[in-house]
Specification:
This protein has 530 residues and is α/β, with parallel strands linked by helices. The protein has helices at residues 2-9, 13-27, 40-52, 62-85, 90-93, 96-99, 103-127, 134-150, 176-193, 204-227, 257-269, 297-306, 364-368, 436-452, 500-529, and strands at residues 235-243, 281-283, 312-321, 331-339, 345-350, 391-392, 398-403, 422-427, 456-460, 465-468, 474-478, 484-492.
């Protein structure tokens, strides 16, 4: 092991960059759908040893001295995001004649940009570096900081945060209900990096003890929470989740809209599965209604006829404001609407956090001059909604809806159980086919249920549609590309361990404690050397 670490530390030039790239790519195996978290116990020690070996120009500026560390982190990040996000390019192949030219920008450009966050993390860690366990604490703090920044800078894209690799199954998901993702990212990087101490004489026993204690605490807390007495059930809700598996090549084809709508209606109106009651709530995926209700009021009449007394439909739609489709000042929203048994729209919630280049074009006036248009999401540019609110469901239940990738943002999915008792996520991951993308998306939605201690209903056009309980257990689900419906009785109970505000404080405190430990050990080493 010492010989291997020595070789890694002494690497230079393209060999160092290649090992960093491969280490980052290997770490992706810790994410869904692979869930092989053991790979991270190789990737992060490699990163530690690579950073051990970086040396800048001693007589140069601080920037020049830190540039090699940034390069190592950037190559690690580029490998991680390239291996973890290559499937984004699938969306551009749905309409390849129009958008295949953008494939390199999506597949390579996005990882290229995101890698700067990990380059930043390596740079910050190197500033606090020491020759003992302090450098492990420094890396944990720096990555937690980088992942936190990745959640909101440049509209935010916290996809595949490192902490998810530490939560492959419900037993190992429960800690996030206390630490939040900030704290989980810090703990995950710290634990994954501890094997780097195997080649050190200092703090080896301390590192081994911390590894055992933290892993045992992580799994032990999960066991206790999963086996603790369930919170009192205040009410139940019978639901049906529809997964129509509509081919994207047909989705906006006017000639097949009636067939798509008939498929949705047929799946919704079918008799309940054996052992289940008639659903009180029916849930359709994102933009599942293949036309504007303003153009097809007869569709609302048909829905009213299909829905029985007391039933409600929540459907993903494109919602128009400001006139007809021919009106230049019309505004379009990616929305969910609630429709009652009379065929009336009783509520609507618009998507607040839109996907750049997918649902709207940043700097549209400038980019349109170069012939660059919106790349994937639909036939129109969407406007962002102003706010999100809970929708009142039958039986006195209130559900807070999140559309598509809104659910990956822990800072957005912050729910007070007194205002909402259910998380609803509608999405259309058919853009990405049967790739890791839909599985990664589902895992992040699953974690939001655990964080907030609330059940999750998820409707996806082609999967993964599911019912998830407050502990992250999958009650029922439909596979990728399956067409069908899920019937389930959902117990409504609040089981959050701590409030969202306390969870945020805990995460920041954990990150701060790692920073303090790194600073103290860094200063201690400097004093010892001097």
């Amino acid at each position: 092991m010492e010989r291997l670490a020595g070789r890694i530390i002494l690497l230079w030039g393209w060999r160092r960059a290649l090992v960093a790239f491969l280490a980052g790519a290997l770490a992706v195996l810790g994410q869904a759908p692979y869930d092989f978290f053991a790979a991270c116990f190789i990737s992060f020690p490699l990163l530690v040893w690579l950073l051990d070996g970086v040396t800048g120009e001693a007589s140069g500026s601080l920037l020049r001295r830190l540039r090699p560390a940034f390069a190592v982190g950037w190559w690690f990040g580029f490998g991680y995001f390239l291996a973890g996000l290559w499937w984004i390019g699938s969306a551009l192949l749905v309409e390849a004649d129009s958008f295949a030219w953008a494939l390199p920008f999506a597949v390579v450009g996005i990882p290229f940009a995101l890698a700067f966050f990990y380059g930043f993390a390596a740079t910050v860690a190197r500033l606090l570096w020491s020759s003992d366990i302090g450098r492990i604490a420094a890396l944990a703090f720096a990555f937690a900081l980088a992942e936190w920044l990745r959640g909101f800078l440049f509209t935010g894209f916290p996809w595949n945060a490192i902490g998810y690799a530490a939560m492959p199954v419900p037993l190992l998901m429960q800690s996030v209900s206390v630490t939040g993702m900030v704290g989980m990212n810090a703990f995950a990087v710290f634990v994954f990096s501890l094997p780097a101490l195997l080649v050190a004489r200092r703090h080896l026993r301390l590192g081994a003890a911390l590894l055992v204690v933290l892993v045992a605490a992580h799994a032990g807390f999960g066991y206790v929470r999963l086996h603790a007495p369930a919170a009192p059930v205040t009410r139940t809700l019978d639901v049906r989740i529809v997964q129509p598996a509509v081919d994207l090549s047909e989705k906006w084809d006017a000639s097949v809209r009636d067939r798509i709508f008939a498929t949705l209606m047929g799946l919704s109106a079918a008799a309940p599965e054996a052992g289940h009651q008639k659903p009180q709530l029916i849930l359709w995926p994102e933009t599942s209604v293949p036309f504007l209700f303003t153009e097809r009021p007869d569709a609302l009449t048909a829905l009213g006829d299909m829905l029985g007394d007391g039933q409600m439909l929540i459907a993903g739609v494109v919602r128009e404001e400001g006139g007809s489709a021919a009106t230049a000042d019309s505004r379009y929203y990616n929305s969910v609407v609630a429709i009652n048994d009379k065929g009336e729209i009783t509520d609507a919630v618009d998507k607040v956090h839109l996907v750049p280049f997918g649902e709207y074009l940043p700097f549209a006036d400038l980019l349109n001059r170069f012939g660059i248009e919106q790349l994937v999401a639909g036939p129109v540019n969407f406007a962002a909604g102003n706010e999100r609110h809970a929708i009142a469901l039958p039986g006195g239940v209130r559900a807070l809806p999140f559309i598509c990738y809104e659910v990956i943002f822990p800072s957005l999915v912050v729910i007070d159980a007194t205002s909402a008792q259910l998380i609803v996520n509608v999405t259309n991951d058919a853009w990405f086919g049967d790739t890791p993308g839909p599985y990664q998306h589902f895992r992040q939605a699953q974690i939001r249920a655990v964080e907030n201690g609330l059940p999750l209903l998820r409707a996806a056009n082609n999967g993964i549609s599911a019912v998830v309980d407050p502990h992250g257990n999958i009650v029922d689900a439909l596979a990728i590309n399956a067409r069908g419906a899920i019937d389930a009785r959902v117990p409504i109970s609040a089981q959050a361990v701590v409030s969202a505000g306390q969870r945020r404080i805990n995460g920041m405190l954990i990150m701060f404690l790692f920073a303090v430990a790194a600073c103290v050990l860094n200063v201690r080493q400097r004093l010892r050397v001097n």
